[in-house]
Amino acid sequence: MGFKTSLKSAEGHQLIANLASAFGIDEQNADTAVEALDRELRARIERNMLSRGGVADVLSLVTQPAAASALSEPRNLTSPNLAENGNHILDVLIGNKHISRGIAARAASEARLDPGTVEKLLPVVASLMIGQLQRQSQPELEKLVQNVPGLVSAGGSPLPMPGDDIPGIGRESQRSPMPQNPYERLPDIVRRGGGPQVPGGGSLEEVIRSIFGNLLGGNRGVIGTMIQLFLIRWLASIARRILSRMLTNR
Predict the structure, then answer these.
(1) Which residues of the chain have pLDDT under 50?
(2) Under a CB-based contact definition with an 8 Å cutoff, are residues 39 and 134 in contact?
(3) Dihedral-angle region of residue 112 (phi above 0 means left; psi in -120 to 50 means alpha; beta otherwise)
(4) Buried b vs exposed e over 161-200: b needs ≥16 C-beta within 10 Å?
(5) Fewer CB atoms inside 10 A, N or C side of the chain?
(6) Over the range 95-130, which residues count as b (16 or more CB within 10 Å of their CB) and which as e?
């Protein structure tokens, strides 16, 4: 079940109610705004995953230990820490505050809300979306590190998922502490194009792209997204040429 589908679940309805209460808006308006923001953010993630570096960026966000904390702490939806984390996600996925404001403005128009309110809502929705991706990708990522020898710890046991309790607390762990994020090497492996082949699944990059693509609920896949971007650019180029001729003939 992807994030878009999860919004229709009982937990999703409660999440919308929590957001509406936290931001002082009507639940129906909150639902419309979240769906609009979800649509825009999913498109951004799909676009990012067209490149190896983009896959690594998304993986880095999803494997942060605290990524899913927003889902389990509804009282902190307006906390500065959550907003800061959400803004970091937007910087990675979008990297341009002007574009982020445009996304918020379109969602605000669709939901009939004040743009300023939706600008504050955007980083929260980004945090929730990445948290949901972490929660839902955990079984697949766990299976991945179990099946690929190069992605397991030196002791031969699978790497724990972010948020898991790490054993060995005490004097022994003080001598050889475990890293806070045992998945921190994965984004770098993907970014460099290295890593072992996944049995029956191709490269690590392709498998991770497929995992996230399925969870995002996209039917187009990478090729479909590339075709769509090509068509948009081609049509924009034709429109510019036509406009240029119209202006020249005046």
Answers:
(1) 1, 153-161, 164-179, 219-234
(2) no
(3) left
(4) bbbeeeeeeeeeeeeeeeeebbbeebbebbbeeebeebee
(5) C
(6) eeeeebeebbebbbebbebeeebbbbbbbbbbbbbb
